[in-house]
Amino acid sequence: MKSKRAWSRVLVLAGVTLSWSAPWAWSAQDEAGPTPEQIATAKAATDDKEDKKDKDKPDFPPFDEVTKGFKKIPSADPSTESTFLTLWFKEKEDKLLVEVPKAMIGKDFLMATSIAGGSFYTGLQWSTNMVQWERMGKKLLLVVPDTRFEPSKGSTVAEVVRRSYTSQILSSVAIVTESPAGNPVVDFGELFKSDISQLGRVFGLQIKKDLCKWGKFKAFPKNVELPVETAISGMTPDGTATRILLHYSLSELPDTDYKPRAADERVGYFMTVTKDWGKKYDEDTLFNRHINRWHLQKVDSSLKLSPVKEPIIWYIEKTVPIRWRRYVKAGILEWNRAFEKCGFLDAVQVRQQTETEFANLDPEDVRYNFFRWIVTGRPFAAGPSRAHPRTGQILDADIIFDDSFVRVLTQQFDLWSPAAIVGTYDPLLEEFFDANPKWRPPSYRERLLPISFESTFERPSAKFDAQLAEHMFRRGQFSCDYAVGMARELNYAAAVFSSEGRDELSEKFLGELIKEVVMHEVGHCLGLRHNFKGSAWLEMDVVLSDEDSPTRATTGSVMDYNPAIFKHKGADTQPQFITRTVGPYDYWAIEYGYRNVEAPHTDEAEMLKSITDRVAESGLAYGTDEDCFFFSPDPHINRYDYGDDPVEYVQYRLEQAGRLLEDIPEWGVEDGESYSRLRRAFDVVLGTYGYVGRFAARFVGGVHVNRDYKGDPDGRPPFEVVDVEIQRAALKLVCDEIFSDKNYQFDPELINKLGAGRFWHWDSDQFNLFTDYPLHDRVRAIQWWSLFTMLNPFTLNRIYNAELQVDSDEEAMTITELFETLTDRIWSELEGPCKGSYSARKPFVSSFRRGLQRTYLQILIELAVNRSDEMGVPADVRSVVFLTLQELSDEIGDMLKSGGKKLDPFSRAHLTEAKIRVDKALDAGFLTS
Fold first, then answer.
1. Which helix (H) or strand (E) holds 117?
2. Fewer Cβ atoms within 10 A, N terminus or C terminus of the chain?
3. Which of 846, 883, 836, 892 is nearest to 863 (CA)?
4. CA–CA distance, 813 with 728 (Å, rounded to integer)
5. How far is CA 205 from the centre of its chain?
6. Is the pTM of this model over 0.85?
7. pLDDT tens column, 522-538
8. Taken in order 43, 48, 50, 51, is the CA torsion positive or negative?
9. In whole angstroms, what is the distance from residue 163 CA to residue 882 CA?
10. Do the beta carbons of residue 785 and residue 693 sit within 8 Å?
């Protein structure tokens, strides 16, 4: 028989304690012990007591206890004590507690992230999200609503849309206590000393949370500014942690009467796009596309020209050098010319920050637009903006401008890579090279040393630039590399000025370029996208005219990448180097985006149609980033070209480069200077042949692309094949200037003076790993890019298809004409009998021509030995390539027979090898047919 003590132990072990005075307690004679019903009753009584205890116990530690030792952060606005969020800080523990009002739960607000310091991208607006707080038990979730889809209120699918497209949980944080008002209090370090910005994820870096610390935060009535000195590893080769100052702005979204404006593909604006499943089934599209723009309204709508209620104000940061401030100010205010045409007076305004005026304004504060001067060691400028994710209303815009832009001779920059030739990172071109490695441009250095220690001397940001560009591209965005390309223009300008005996670049020249780049970046801040067709407006003789006026535009748009223009050496005048004001397209685009509806128009749709009806007018042509890939068809859409006939611009620039090279030893380096200065100047001028030659090559197989709609006055069709005579002229120019060896005949004395920079240290701007100068490699790269532009599969397909786009009774560029012309010009040495006496020192075929012929054969063989469906070219094109190779084999064979021993060893070896390669390629090609 079990005793009472034994049963007590059993029940205690079961988690139940019995009171012996309980009415149902059994006696010593109750050998069977308590019944199941008795045990259940006892447990229920105990649970009731525990529940009562839990109800009496608070959910969180007391507010006063948790915030003990913390200092409440007062409002940074002296006019009020209220703040968007209430902050408490304990300096000793670097801990920031934040009270989130219950009224904010589920309400939209803005979280903007900027890179404020410690990085190559200092000053860059990194990301902008519309976010909400969501409470889940004892946690707060920071969620990003899916703003891509309209809620479709009133539609039968509204509930389905709500269920289908849910919020993204950005992060979560534990509630540590509640304020006396019942508001949750959280530790913001758990949120922001992390990779909530996703900077680490994009660049493959790691956030060291325990090494992060708070900067100087501020609380305002409608926003809080939270800088975090973030410790990131992976930015340096040794893996040590680097501090980057990330600035987070949490702010209230404005509640205004702003009305979104529909986007139009004829006018280039950044857009806010949503999909609306509630639309009728016969609608053209499910998407609602609205332009991003500021909310500008007249003070007095009855006036033709009225001040605006809320002008767009930029503060020029006090860090901007005094010497350049007037050009910065002028570039910002230049846009008022376009706004005045829309009826707005002083819509754009400028304030100068000094040590006393506006001194306390924070550039990262989302309430203020700043123009900032940064120092990263790379020519860089950017003008991003932040827009309301639901409406497209621009709320904040900052411009950053790097000091290196005006430090011409201290810059090491690339002249020979695909990005340098194309003008920017081109993801489609890189994808093509990855898929077709045999097409990748040749470089003996990369072939011999794919990974060399020269990478030690690359710009610290070099490996991150491509990642950033790709990240933006996959998000449907493009980076602005205008200032980077302008570095090449500045170095070319230095060459021009040095050849004319000027010791340094003139302030007039630098001031004009600064103003133009500022105009460009402000245009982005106003919502405008790039317009790479803007420069194809005026004839070159108009651009180069002596007219000198501050209101004279020499390009259709400052949203193009416009190069500087220099008169030839010895010219009497140089009135202006680049456009000084916004162009006709810029006026038109601002009118579309900002003009208020007023007489004679009665509604917005009617007014906008009256604006877009002008699409075919001269100077209003538009083509943007996605129209400017390497394989894109329109030869007028380029970066850094000029004039309505880019072939004329190419001829002008090449003629100027040739003149510069004639006497470069005299002006390229002075007594007491390193010969590496001469090498740099030579590279800059010779590199001109590479990137401008491609402008001409693009006309071969080119198709003009228009954005006109059916019914537009003087409307043009979407496609217009480039006139065949223009294509022929472009092809002739490339053959005469790029493929001929006449432009590469340099005095040996010059080549022997192209000394290498020998300062070997971190981030050196005067170091070359290879001390010798690779002239053959340089020339081969120049010629390869023009060949590749005309012979890549995309161009060949266009030429093949273009025959169907031209009336049968009109002439057209054909595949056969292209290959016949190229073969005749590139292999012109085969045209007649071998006459004269040749030697290894004076060969029949020069070394530059031999390199060109090998490159041409390499491309032909690549087209021949791969099946048409694999190479992506029509079978007819491949047939023409076969015929071209067969005829080349015959002609080379005839030359070897007739020339015999008259040929020098180099030429004979070259031709012999070429014939063998061609014959074997033809055999291999038939096997793969």
1. strand 109-117
2. N
3. 883
4. 8
5. 20
6. yes
7. 999 999 999 999 999 99
8. positive
9. 59
10. yes
